[in-house]
Design brief:
Layout lengths: L3 H15 L11 H5 L10 H9 L18 H5 L6 H14 L8 H13 L28 E4 L2 H5 L1 H16 L4 E2 L10 H5 L3 H17 L4 E4 L2 H10 L8 E4 H10 L12 E4 L13 H8 L5 E3 L28 H11 L4 E4 L2 H13 L7 E4 H6 L3
Bound molecules: iron/sulfur cluster (SF4) (2 copies).
Length: 383
Amino acid sequence: METIAPFIEVIDEIKEAGGEIFKMCFQCGLCDAVCPWNKVRPFSMRKLIREAAFGLTEIEGEDIWRCTTCGTCPAQCPRGVKQIDVSVALRRVATEYDVFPASVKSARTARASLISEGNPLQGERKKRADWAKDLSVKTYAEGMEVLYFVGCYLSYDPRMKKVATATANILKKAGVEFGILGDQESCCGESIRKTGSEQVFKDLARKNIKTFIDNGVKKIIVSSPHCFHTFKNEYPEFMVNFEVIHMSQYLLELINEGRLELTGEYPQKVTYHDPCYLGRHNNVYDEPRDLLKQVAGLELVEMEASRKNSLCCGGGGGRIWMDTPQKERFSDIRLKQAEKTGAQVLATSCPYCITNFEESRLNLEYEKVIEVKDITEIISDMI
Ligand code: SF4
Ligand code: SF4
């Protein structure tokens, strides 16, 4: 392994990512105090920033892969340091040198699958719309009211396909003229970008943008906060600007416009988990809660850390594809926080959160203690 080149590249990459801003760090350690990693094992973003400032990062180590990009420390840093940009820049260097610790190797499998099939789950591209086969969901055509961008997990993952089905049923019930792109849809690219594979992100983004333009897409509704974030905040880097609405916002809109009527009762105590990319990164805190409040009989209770203090599930920043020992899973802690409220249901609105929470539910043997649901699954029970 060459030694000097990575040092120089680390500095160059970081300058490109955030100018000189990381040098303003005065090593106060607040980032470490708020980072969820320190609830499960030691990790110092402060140290990473210091080493990076001198180009002295060990790119072979695990630490550059830890940050889940949850957004907690950037929001608290007194010096406006862009910790996430620094982490991603370091990962770009490691990716360029093809240096991956064992726990990160599975992210390479996800990358290979993204390149060949357009999704990280090793699903065949031609099977992307199989979930919708029996639902008579249309393919998007110019002039339709909205494009439903389904996303990878909802297209391929057996648990998440239930959320796609619930969503399609609600949209149909509300009379929304919507279509999907089927095998023309590719991963939005948000998470692979955070692992440092910038070119893979750009290729995916360009492919989607071309498909949107070729099909005359104007308004996009999404289930995943990761698609939401990247369409809204990152695709404009390609000089495009599509209207993007998260499903929690869209369903509330449909109810407020009188297009979607909820019936029956849902006599359950529910607590809502704010996904990092919907809450902290995009300030969507109220709509999911307002939507749940529309459900008769539902009692909404808050966990000890909610809204901007919500605890990350551990799945952002590409960590969803990396190996995390069970004792180090934030999602286990979150499930315990949910259980403490006495809620029977932990509701959320992100495929990564649901995947991690369902796994923790099994690990903690909480199957009879609490259910995990996407908010669309609750709404679809009420139509
Ligand atoms: S919170 Fe900001 S200033 Fe303090 S150590 Fe972390 S990056 Fe540096
Ligand atoms: S963004 Fe979140 S996970 Fe990353 S270092 Fe900051 S607090 Fe930790």
